Amino acid sequence: MDRTAVRSREIAIVGYDEELATLEIAFRRGGVYRYQDVPVEVHRELLKASSIGTYFTDNIKEKYSYEKVNG
Known about the structure:
Elements lengths: L1 E4 L5 E7 L4 E6 L4 E4 L4 H9 L3 H8 L6 E5 L1
Helix pairs in contact: 1-2
C-alpha cells in the first residue's frame, strides 16, 4: 500500500492499494480505517482536494464500507 502524508487538520496519512481498491485513512487524533471498494479516481481526487477533510466527509466517510484497523 502506498501511503502519503497530507496537510489536513484531521487526517495525517492517506494510503491506497490499487489492486484491492482499499483506501486507508490515518487520523491525527488516532485511529486508522480501511475503506473497501474505493475507485482509484476517488483516491486521486482526495489527494488533490483543497480540503482533504471536507472531501473525505462528503465523498468517502458514509459511502464505503470500512473497518477500524488501529487505535
